[in-house]
Design brief:
Shape: globular
Helix content: 25-40%
Order of helices and strands: EHEHEHHHEEEHEEEEHEHEEHH
CATH architecture of one domain: 3-Layer(aba) Sandwich
Number of strands: 13
Length: 349
């Protein structure tokens, strides 16, 4: 495309000895992923500037002019941290890829997201938000339950022990979340069924890519029977015998009717949160046939080896470089359309 592209990211580091949990930096991206994305964008004829999303971000953009920003930054502080880079770019009037401040802020708050799902009539597991570890209620919920930090992504805070079968186990997990992650705990019914994730790309209209099924039958030896942080972190880096490598089916093993309903449900969730350009929607197809939406990720991982979204795109016939440039293209198209509509509105006044 021949654009000047600033590429904003947060670099993954090791927690070290600072008392941080092992998964503290799991949302951030490795040097290998950052290099792969930059090279993918360069393959489209773009000039790419790497900009780490730290406290020097505002100063960098005030002193450097670019056409657009390719943003994968997760943010560094606060409950709405994924909104930090888009907020700075909106303030400066610089276009960027992916969803904006509101969608990113809402989606990182799992309970708020589920409230929007309920209002829109989107199936989601029954849940409760525990705000005080001294006051824990499981009223109206059916065990097993899963307890997870309310405002984290990438499986942070989710382990095998997160699935609980009684009040004592629930109390243990809520106390752990409060102590280690210093935040509220979302508790929801654990749905037994088929784990699916749906990639969505584009805007006019957004396209549902082949549905990915994650089958954990390979993981019986480890006991990791669902997407914990450990599986997400190591599924493509360890031997099968260690039980951390679920099998991916893309397209998923679904009937035509099931695939249609799941695609429509994912699109409805995408629009309900206010996503644009790209997103990944995680769905559990329950044994009752209901597609329960677990969450929407407007900043899906783009690791060329480990991440679901690039794998789904590959199954749709799109190589990695083409995917990076397609994300850029749909964002440019959206910004140009919005700019044109704004000009038309001003001229009609």
């Amino acid at each position: 495309m021949g654009l000047k592209v600033a590429f904003t990211y947060n670099l993954k580091r090791k927690p070290g000895n600072r008392g941080l949990p092992d998964d503290y930096y799991s949302e951030f991206d490795s040097k290998e992923t950052i290099e792969a994305i930059a090279n993918g964008l360069r393959s489209g004829g773009n000039e790419v500037f790497l900009v780490e999303a730290d406290k020097g971000l505002l100063n960098w953009f005030q002193n450097n002019k670019v056409d657009i920003v390719f943003n994968i930054a997760e943010g560094i502080n606060g409950e709405s941290r994924e909104s930090q880079v888009p907020a700075v770019l909106d303030f400066l009037g610089i276009p960027y890829t992916g969803s904006g401040v509101l969608a990113l802020g809402v989606s990182l708050n799992k309970t708020l997201t589920k409230k929007l799902f309920e209002h829109a009539g989107i199936p989601t597991p029954k849940y409760r938000l525990i705000t005080d570890p001294a006051v824990i209620s499981d009223e109206g919920l059916r065990y097993p339950l899963i307890a997870k930090p309310n405002s984290e992504g990438s499986g942070k805070g989710i382990t095998m022990s997160s699935v609980v079968r009684n009040k004592a186990e629930l109390t243990r997990e809520v106390e752990k979340t409060s102590r280690v992650y210093q935040q509220e705990t979302l508790v929801e019914e654990f749905i037994d069924g088929k784990e699916l994730t749906v990639g969505i790309l584009g805007n006019y209209p957004p396209a549902v890519m082949p549905i990915l099924e994650i089958d954990f039958s390979n993981c019986k030896t480890s006991g990791e029977f669902f997407y914990t942080w450990k599986v997400k972190e190591f599924e493509k880096e360890v031997e099968e015998s260690k039980g951390l490598s679920p099998h991916w089916y893309c397209p998923a093993r679904l009937s035509e009717t099931e695939a249609k309903i799941i695609g429509e449900t994912a699109l409805k969730a995408f629009h309900t949160i206010g996503c644009v350009d790209l997103s990944r929607v995680d769905i559990m197809l329950g044994k009752d046939g209901v597609p329960y939406v677990l969450e929407v990720n407007p900043l899906p991982g783009l690791d060329p080896v480990d991440s679901n979204f690039p794998y789904i795109a590959k199954c749709a016939g799109m190589d990695y470089g083409n995917l990076m440039n397609r994300i850029l293209e749909v964002a440019v198209e959206r910004h140009n359309k919005n700019k044109s509509l704004a000009l038309q509105e001003r001229s009609s006044r």
